[in-house]
Amino acid sequence: MSKKLVLEHICKNFDSLIAVNDVNLVVEPGEFLCLLGPSGCGKTTLLRIITGFEQASSGTLSYNGKVINKVIPQKRDFGIVFQSYALFPNMTVKQNMAFGLNMRKMPQKLIDERVNEILKLVGLTDWQNHYPAQLSGGQQQRVALGRAIAIKPKVLLLDEPLSALDAKIRVRLRTVIKRLQQDLGITMIYVTHDQEEALSIADRVAVMKDGQVRQIGSPWEIYKAPKTSFVAQFVGTSNFISATKKNGKIQFGQREFVVSGLTDAAGETLHLAIRPEKIEFVAPPISPEQYVTSNIVEVVAEVITFLGAVVRITFLLEGKEMDVDLPEKEFEKIGLQRGEKLTLYFPPDAFHVYTELFQEVI
Ligand SMILES: Nc1ncnc2c1ncn2[C@@H]1O[C@H](COP(=O)(O)OP(=O)(O)OP(=O)(O)O)[C@@H](O)[C@H]1O
């Protein structure tokens, strides 16, 4: 029987507040699933229901074909890693890692073997006799990870494990976690509000809002085909244009755009999203006819931001601030300065079209 974790119609209320609202999920054995969403969307509550620290108000949670709603956390054999490392301060790295194995009364020889193996996996062999206070945050989280996987959990649940760490360490530890998951074949469910982290680490991402899963798919699917304007806005960067449809085209201020896949309804307000990297630079010369007919516009570079591999140029279109990302090499060739003009092309098939616009509350 396959060891799937299945959530069916899971709901959780705190008095009148609905924290989790009818979540249905199947997590495959060995899968890396990220629960991604803004603060308060219910991801931690959902994870706590899976750990057993929280009881669902309704719905069924099953693992390996058995309903586990009423099984206490210790009997679920699920490992947990929190944002706060929750290490035992008076125990060394090695003792922290051996803790769960000692509790299970494993023979000392096997404990030593297992701990040595885990120390290697998380890169802490040289630190095994240090105490948590003598370690950096990243090292402490490695200990917490090692301690959680030492007991060979069936499922490892991670709640924002990297959010207390600085950017460089976060990226490095992401790779450590991903490698552990692949090498050990552990099912992992990972909560984060960091979309970049979710896209880079997960096999599948479940994007949550208001206690519900709004879209689930591979990072590629979520990024390439966001089903709602909320997902388009929350995952990656999108420029939004609110415009009306006229004569099969989109009327945005004084301009018209050709957009692929428009519905038949005329006159309705549509919300178009286009990613900054989908807008293309057009090298001069450009004929006047091109400007009128082919989604080509001339804009002024208001702000230029270096992002490493790409350069982001902020411009105004019909009074709306937008971004285009150009590969650093292309930008260098163009030699653009702030305040100078550039010509851009909006490919018709690069737009995502929505009938509703999610307004972000900042
Ligand atoms: N024990 C509790 N009692 C009452 N309300 C709660 C409790 N736990 C969570 N909530 C509420 O449930 C909602 C979902 O909270 P939850 O912590 O699951 O969100 P989250 O997506 O993990 O957010 P964050 O990223 O900020 O931790 C929030 O409105 C929160 O205030």
Automatic annotation (TrEMBL):
InterPro entries registered for this protein in UniProt: AAA+_ATPase, ABC_SmlMolc_Importer, ABC_transporter-like_ATP-bd, ABC_transporter-like_CS, Mo/tungstate-bd_C_term_dom, P-loop_NTPase, Transp-assoc_OB_typ2
Pfam families in the record: ABC_tran, TOBE_2
Chain ranges of the ABC transporter domain: 5-235
GO cellular component, one term: ATP-binding cassette (ABC) transporter complex
GO molecular function: ABC-type transporter activity; ATP binding; ATP hydrolysis activity
Keywords, comma-separated and alphabetical: ATP-binding, Nucleotide-binding, Transport
Protein name in the entry: Spermidine/putrescine ABC transporter ATPase subunit
